[in-house]
Amino acid sequence: MSQLTYMDLRQCGQLKEQAARWFHSKWGVPEEAYLECMNNYLENKTELGWWLCLDGDRIVGGLGVIENDFHHRKDLTPNICAVYTEPEYRCNGIAGCLLKLAVENLRAKGISPVYLITNRIGFHERYGWEFLCMVHGDGEAEF
User: pLDDT tens across 39-83, in order?
Assistant: First the structure.
């Protein structure tokens, strides 16, 4: 593993198409949806942004922040979304670093709190996150 670089998408806007393809390949959400959110961020229409971890020119980790991550609790906004680290890069603190960068960036802009919807109970708490409640996704059956 070479030197990892962490950056806000505004620092590397030329990577938006590559990033949209990368996130799509991990989560199955259409590339166009990612591009729309990324363009809004790059055009300063929102401060809810995208962060990447690069190994050279390869994206090895990333996450975004959106209004609502496909769940019924519309009051829990904004949401960290699409958190992913390539398997061979896991256990190196990449997700934790990306989470910290995103939260610090948003907090500096007066955006707090930020929510994270996940089924990985225990993982994010290692990075200072606190469990709030269970929610279900849009279109999912109630618990």
Answer: 999 999 999 999 999 999 999 999 999 886 555 667 778 988 899
Residue 3, SS3?
Answer: coil
Taking the C-alpha atoms of residue 88 and residue 78, their distance in angstroms, rounded to an integer, is 29
Handedness of CA 6, 9, 12, 15 (dihedral sign): positive
User: Phi first, then psi: what are they for 6, rounded to 5°?
Assistant: -110, 135
% of the chain surpassing 70 pLDDT? 76
Taking residue 114's Cβ as centre, other Cβ atoms within 10 Å add up to: 18
Q: Which two tokens stand for residue 31?
A: 């590339």
Q: Considering only CA atoms, which of 106, 15, 79, 110 is closest in space to residue 53?
A: 15
pTM: 0.82
- Given a contact cutoff of 8 angstroms between Cβ atoms, the answer to whether 111 and 47 are in contact is yes
| HSE toward the beta carbon, residue 77, CA cutoff 13 A | 12
